[in-house]
Amino acid sequence: MPTMALPHIQSLIRLATGDEKHDASAYSTLDVLWVLYDQVLHFDSANPHSPDRDRFILSKGHGPLAFYAILADKGFFPTQALTTFARAGSFLGTHPDRLLVPGVELSTGSLGHGLSVAVGVALALRAKKSPRQVYVLIGDGESSEGSIWEAILLAGNLQLANLTCILINNYSSSRNLGNPAAKFSAFNWAAHTVDGRNHSEIYSALVQKDVTRPTAIIAQIRNEEK
Amino acid sequence: MSQTMMRNQMLETVTKLFQEDERLALVLADISVAALDPIFEQYPERAFNVGIMEQTMIGVAAGLALEGFIPVAHTIAPFLVERAFEQLKIDFCYQQLGGNFISIGASYDYSTEGATHQAPGDVAVLKSLPAMQIVVPGSAEEFDRLFRASYANSAPTYYRLSTSANNLNQSVEFGKLRLIRKGKQATVLAVGPTLERVLAAVKDMDVTVLYCTTVAPFDGITLRQNFTGDRLIVVEPYYAGALVPDVMQALAGQSVQLTSIGLPHQMLRSYGTVAQLDEIAGFTVASIREQIAQVLSLVK
Prior knowledge:
- The complex is a heterodimer.
- By secondary structure, chain A is an alpha/beta fold.
- Chain A has helices spanning 7-13, 23-28, 30-40, 65-73, 114-127, 146-157, 180-186, 199-207; strands at residues 55-58, 134-139, 163-169, 190-195, 215-220.
- Chain B contains 12 helices and 12 strands.
- Chain B has helices spanning 6-20, 37-42, 54-66, 77-83, 85-94, 122-126, 140-150, 195-201, 220-226, 244-250, 274-281, 285-296, and strands spanning 24-28, 47-49, 70-76, 99-104, 133-135, 156-160, 177-181, 186-191, 207-212, 214-216, 231-239, 257-263.
- Chain B starts with 5 loop residues before the first helix and ends with a helix.
- Chain A binds chain B through residues 98-99, 105-107, 110, 112-113, 115-128, 146-147, 150-151, 153-154, 157-158, and chain B through 25, 27, 45-46, 48, 50-51, 53, 55-56, 58-69, 71, 86-87, 90-91, 94-96.
């Protein structure tokens, strides 16, 4: 894979085999997830359901190996579990299951579900007056689903400032998304476009919260990395 | 109809429970918004009208459930069940989350609006979802009783409200069949608002009548205990046959002649009143009586 960053996470990813068809999907999320878990999210891996945690939902579900490797690195489960990936008896499937994997908030895989659920979580946190944030990661291919645009319209209307949607744009969609940031902006989101491999750009966008609008971060992954 | 309409009862029950249970959350998709205005006025932090986006209505409800709320989502049956089916499957059943899904417009209650607004297949498709509870009340009071008994039981539950209702309320219990009368020649299982028609149809017949308002989980034990004769007639207010696997499993090992009476499995292309569509669908007292009599005529 072209990215040379995070060799310790990449070595963890290589412990798992059996889902090579989703390698591009897994590696496309690597840097964003690392910055999120290493520098931004509040969590306690010893108490994954702590109310005082930020919520992260991997909406696209596909290619969860980078996600699993980072969760393991951060202590949610032993790194050796990665060697069991997708095998009989393993809790690590090719799509994450919240009832099996510590640290997974939502079982995903069918595209277009996670953003709507994240809106519900953000509304719930707002109702509970929680200061915690909700982050959701969608793919550019997933963005062809109509339900994604329902949720984008709704979150913008509701001014859900505690919600951040990260769109990993690795140009896997059959449809041309045009300028995703402009589209999010048109739906009343604060939108930023970053290099999906540049950790400082990713970090700056993640912590630059708007107080009245949800935030969209378009993480561009260079075309040749597909 | 002298009784309270089920929908009006639902509005009253949900509004009352909102005052008592701060875990409740409401998610609508532009239907019944004005009627539930008191909830939006008093509890804006946990009542949401998402607009005409039923898939997202269910997804948002799931997000609220993840955070400990007990969501109530409500709209017209085809949009709640068929439009948002995968959200019910993935966002609730797969995640093992509790939630309440209340439909109006059962079968062809929207009798002039065509198949776009009708869902006689709702129960059949929902029965394909493991863990989905299905409640078909026969009256407004029964809805109130069944909803209060089940809304907080941590399972996804579908409540099928209809304009058609029985005039007599039964002391129904969630998850239980109710024995209405005991006979010798056959057993008739009436689901929800069919009971009144069934009782009229069999008034001079020597049959056991059982009443079902919880379609899933199905109370096979009570059926087995009260099954009389070797003939079972199931009368359902949606496409006929949704309960067949359950009743056959309950009566496994017995010789049973099963007859399913319900709506015909076809797209209706007729307009008029619900009663007129019942005539066209063959779902009248006379038609039900004729079909049951035919079964009984075979009894030696």
